[in-house]
Amino acid sequence: xxxxxPRAAFTAAGGTVPLEAIxxxxxxxxxxxxxHFPTREALVEAVYAAELDxxxxxxxxxxxxxxxxxxxxxxxxxxxxFVATKRAMAETLRxxxxxxxxxxxxTRERITAAIATILASGAEAGTxxxxxxxxxxxxxxxxxxxxxxxxDSPGQTGRLLDLVMDALRPKxxx
Length: 174
What we know:
It contains 9 helices and no strands. It has 174 residues and is mostly helical.
C-alpha cells in the first residue's frame, strides 16, 4: 500500500494535520517523526522547503523535455500545487515566521528566477514574449493562485493559467 507523504497530507487536509496521522501515513512511529521533526513548525518548514525546492528545481528538466511555452505551463501547474500545499500550512508558517522559529525563505526570489529562466528560453525560441519582467509574472501568478480557494473548481485554476499563458505569448501583427 502506498503511503501518503507529509506534504500530500497537508494539501489534502486543508488545515491542521495531526502529527500522529502523518507518522501513520509515513509508516513510522510517532517517536521517529519527533526525532526528525521535534515540533510541528519543524515539520512544516521541512515540507515547505521540499515543495519550494521541487517547484524551483523542476525548471531544467522541464526545459529539456518540453518546448519553453509548454514547460512554462507545466511549471505553473507545479507552482499551483506548491501554493495549494502552502495554503494548508499558512497558519503555522505565518506564526513561525513571526516568532522567528522558522526562517523566512527567499521564496519570491527563487520563483522569479525560475520564471526568468523559462521566459529567457521561450524568448530565444520565439514562443514567449521578450518584453515581460519575470517579477510581473511572479506577482500575477501569486495573485491568481492566492485568489482561488480550495473550494474553487479545479477547472478554474486551469482557465486562469491559460489566461496567463495568453498574456505571455508573442503578439502577432494584425
